[in-house]
From TrEMBL:
This is STING ligand-binding domain-containing protein. One of its GO terms (cellular component) is endoplasmic reticulum membrane. Keywords: Membrane, Signal, Transmembrane, Transmembrane helix. It comes from Heliothis virescens. Residues 126-318 form the STING ligand-binding domain. Pfam families: STING_LBD. One of its GO terms (biological process) is innate immune response. Residues 1-19 form the signal peptide.
Length: 331
């Protein structure tokens, strides 16, 4: 394994540098004891720093301890820690010297700025913000506002669809569904509860008018938005334009491919989703062209009791309390 080769190379380098000095084979046990104790000190300091970061995060956000933290622990460091402890005990040596407590305390004090900045979450923030910016500039700005030429905007696209299909959208916004697991199926109807008949269900309809734009060297690149009908028991169906959050769906596939995602092992999915939604919402609200035209929907797809169609209905009811009347008038 790579880390064992690196460790061996470091040890050989130290031995080579010190070989011209006082290193003798007769002192090898002393050397081994000293190395084990210092490795133990370093790992102890690193571990306590990690504990402080997690404790600070829990305090600031009012969160409980996440059991998933155990999965993200560096197993190699844990193995090295207990190996050093076992070696020192078997050698009848003190595991921790009294003076080391002051060193550990001093190290934690000097690292307070990094702990407060939550340095360990830097990759989460950068990745989520990057995806939000890319999704907004690379997709939403092409499907929501008018380009002043061929495409007159999402609102007009919805109205044209209503006229052609004889339906009505009580909320004329693009609903973007972001799931807790990051997963997004090819069609949102896959979230339907096939084993339940007491909940609403989604049905895919035809797509809205195709949008064509020349983007990044691609002539006539096409963009589409899909219309869905939400069927309810003893009530009229409700039309909505909805789709999954493609950047997070891509990240879901990346994380499944372990050969490609080694650098993302420590990525906190829940933090990514939260930061993605927060930052994307800010970008949309600041854009005069896109503000009010897109609705972000968080859906906990890991909860089997939740139904996406009902979640969408709840948001429609929140945005348009009189949506039943709107549908009835169109009829």
């Amino acid at each position: 394994m790579a880390w064992t080769r690196v460790a061996a190379l470091i040890i050989l380098t130290v031995l080579f540098v010190s070989g011209s000095q006082n290193f003798e084979l007769s002192n090898k046990h002393v050397w081994a004891t000293s190395i084990a104790r210092n490795v133990l000190y370093i790992l102890t300091i690193q571990g306590l720093k990690g504990v402080c970061v997690v404790a600070y995060k829990m305090y600031r956000k009012g969160q409980a301890l996440d059991a998933k933290l155990l999965d993200r622990m560096n197993r190699h460091h844990v193995m090295m820690f207990f190996a050093c402890v076992a070696f020192l005990i078997l050698s009848e040596q003190d595991v921790l010297d009294r003076s080391v407590y002051l060193i550990i305390l001093a190290s934690l004090v000097t690292d307070i700025p990094n702990i407060v900045k939550k340095k360990d979450n830097k990759i989460t923030m950068n990745y989520a913000m990057g995806m939000a910016c890319s999704y907004f500039e690379g997709y939403l700005v092409h499907v929501l506002p008018s380009d002043g030429a061929k495409f007159f905007g999402f609102l007009e696209n919805i109205r044209a669809y209503e006229d052609n299909q004889g339906v009505v959208f009580p909320v004329k916004k693009l609903f973007v569904v972001v799931t807790k697991s990051l997963y997004s199926p090819p069609a949102l109807v896959d979230f339907n509860k096939s084993d339940r008949h007491d909940v609403a269900k989604l049905e895919a309809c035809s797509a809205l008018s195709t949008i064509q734009k020349d983007v990044a060297g691609v002539l006539g690149r096409t963009y589409k938005n899909t219309a869905y009908k939400i069927y309810r028991r003893a009530a009229r169906p409700v039309c909505v334009s909805a789709e999954g959050g493609t950047p997070l769906a891509t990240l879901f596939r990346v994380l499944r491919n372990r050969d490609l995602s080694d650098e993302l092992v420590g990525l906190d999915r829940e933090e990514v989703v939260k930061d993605f939604l927060t930052f994307l919402r800010k970008i949309i609200d600041k854009s005069p062209e896109c503000s009010g035209k897109c609705e972000l929907i968080y859906f906990n797809d890991t909860d089997r009791n939740l139904n996406l169609a009902d979640v969408l209905l709840d948001r429609i009811r929140e945005l348009a309390p009189n949506f039943e009347e709107i549908i009835a008038e169109r009829r």
